[in-house]
Amino acid sequence: MRLSLRRRLLAAGIVLSLALLALAGCGGADKQPGPPEAAPASEAQPGPATSEPRPVKGAPAPEIIAKDVKTGEVIRLSDLKGQVVMVNFWATWCPPCRAEMPDMEQLYRETQGKVRILAVGGDGKESAQQLAAFAEEMGLTFPVVHDFGSAARSYRILGLPTTYFIDQNGIIRERMQGAMDLEIMRELLASTEQAAGSQ
After folding, report:
1. In this structure, are residues 189 and 115 in contact, taking their beta carbons and an 8 Å threshold?
2. In this structure, how many other beta carbons lie within 10 angstroms of the beta carbon of residue 64?
3. Per-residue pLDDT of the chain (199 residues; tens, 9 = 90+)
4. Rg (CA), the chain
5. Which candidate in 82, 110, 142, 157 could, as Cys together with 117 as Cys, close a disulfide (CB 3.0–4.6 Å)?
6. Hey, which residues does 172 pair with through a beta bridge?
7. In Å, how far are 110, 161, 162, 168 from 194, measured between CA atoms?
8. What is the CATH number for 97?
9. Cα separation of 83 and 178, whole Å?
């Protein structure tokens, strides 16, 4: 009887571990951002040395320079200072990324431009055309940008989706790994605005 209880507890632990891994988001060596393979030299941005630490809360957000896949406009994170920015790293093949996109669109519409959302392609192997087709299919109106995986390397993204909330001064206030729903997005946005206001 004692052995049976141990086996049940072990089985429950394994099931819980698998469930937690599933909730953590997409990841794995075969889907991690890699170096740009066919990036034109004028568009590819060099990533940092691998010894650099991942950006953390309270630190300045690393620069992002990427092209909007719908308009071709070059967007620089530094040009968005003065606004709260939600930077979401994602990929078209990532189910949790796809699941949170409608809530991101809802947040974007609710805030009426008060919050800038940048959906940055986190897999350098995906093309701008793939991202644009996804954005059209999902009806996304916020900028979806492509930079051959450069920003994902700068931010040292290990799993998708990963989202950073950056305040009006360009400081990282929140980081979320894994999919979010609308309520979590609102909470992290409020926390970001509050942190910037308390300075």
Report:
1. yes
2. 24
3. 454 555 554 455 444 443 444 445 676 323 433 333 333 333 333 344 445 678 999 999 999 999 999 999 999 999 999 999 999 999 999 999 999 999 999 999 999 978 999 999 999 999 999 999 999 999 999 999 999 999 999 999 999 999 999 999 999 999 999 999 999 999 999 999 998 777 6
4. 18
5. 142
6. 166
7. 18, 24, 21, 11
8. 3.40.30.10
9. 24
Q: What one-character DSSP code corresponds to residue 63? A: P
- The residue segments making up the domain with residue 181 are 2-197
Task: Please choose, from the candidates 168, 169, 166, 188, the residue with its C-alpha nearest in 3D space to the C-alpha of residue 178.
Answer: 188
Q: What is the pTM of this model?
A: 0.76
Domains held by the chain: number? 1
Tokens linked to 81: 């200072």
Side chain identity, residue 88: N
